[in-house]
Write a structure and sequence with these properties.
Blueprint: H1 4-7, H2 14-45, H3 54-86, E1 90-100, E2 107-117, E3 121-128, E4 132-137, E5 141-145, E6 150-154, H4 165-169, H5 175-178, E7 179-187, E8 190-197, E9 206-211, E10 218-224, E11 230-240, E12 258-262
Parallel strand pairs: 6-12
Antiparallel strand pairs: 1-2, 1-11, 2-3, 3-4, 4-5, 5-6, 7-8, 8-9, 9-10, 10-11
């Protein structure tokens, strides 16, 4: 994790938080309602007594068709993603991670291995620059830092409710239900999608994912939290449907390790920082 002294969030007023939520709502309204409004204008312009210029009605029609085609394309790709991960039972991947802190400008790069199995079982092992373990199941969440000889225990409810980036990169988020999805384009043979949470949280206000359009596999993500901090995760290797032992997702703190119980104080915790 980034040093605690460098990642303390700045004081955020309620007014600023409300403004963020309003912008998210307005973006959702603009993306979904504006095409309908312009479509109504187009048909009204061809009604009895309509005096709307023909060029404007033509513009309305073109804009509606453009918005519809973009949404249909995004829906099609998110459908491919959902279909792929529905048929997958497990995967293992090597990852590279870059954490950025907006206020201080600090950047930390990590590398490690991720193992995931259904139902929700995840083992996130950071190998460098220092070892760290994150274990997530439906019953418990552990974060163990060997160098500090400390293990934190968090409430598994952190993985419920609003969508988070862990659910996204493991293919467990319902993208069409939880996000407004916008097509960005093709980058390095991967399709890039921008995700705007319908229910933004302090941990996630927007994200980008890079997807293999043919298979539906998510190869990279870039997320931003409420404070402008970034988290980029890229899978450098990826293998699916591997045999996984249940014992892999069990953790007992080693003797002498301090255990800090944060199950009653887990709200707002970003597990991948």
């Amino acid at each position: 994790m980034l040093k605690a002294s460098s990642i303390q969030p700045m004081a955020v007023s309620r007014v600023k938080y409300a403004a963020k939520l309003f912008l998210a709502f307005f973006r959702h309204l603009l993306q979904n309602a504006l095409p309908l409004i312009l479509g109504a204008c187009f048909f009204h312009s061809h009604g009895k007594g309509a005096a709307m210029p023909r060029f404007f009605s033509f513009f309305c029609l073109c804009f509606c068709l453009l918005c519809l085609s973009e949404n249909l394309w995004a829906d099609d790709l998110t459908g491919t993603i959902k279909q792929h991960y529905t048929g997958m039972s497990s995967f293992k991947a090597d990852f590279s991670q870059t954490l950025t802190h907006r206020e201080s400008g600090a950047v930390e790069k990590r590398q490690g291995t991720l193992t995931f199995a259904k139902p929700l079982r995840l083992l996130w092992q950071t190998a460098s620059p220092r070892k760290e373990l994150l274990l997530i199941t439906s019953e418990v969440i552990w974060n163990y830092i060997p160098d500090e000889e400390i293990a934190y225990q968090y409430n598994p409810n952190l993985m419920q409710g609003a969508a988070n980036i862990i659910q996204v990169i493991t293919g467990q988020a319902d993208l069409m239900r939880d996000f407004d999805v916008k097509r960005v384009g093709l980058e390095n043979n991967l399709q890039r999608l921008k995700l705007y949470p319908k229910k933004p949280t302090t941990q996630l206000v927007e994200a980008d994912i890079w997807v293999d359009a043919k298979s539906g596999v998510i190869r990279k993500s870039e997320s931003t939290d409420f404070y402008g901090n970034g988290n980029t995760i890229e899978f450098t290797s990826y293998t699916e449907n591997i045999p996984v032992k249940d014992s892999l997702f069990r953790f007992t703190p080693p003797k002498g390790v301090e255990v800090e119980d944060r199950r009653n104080d887990s709200e707002g915790k970003d597990l991948l920082r």
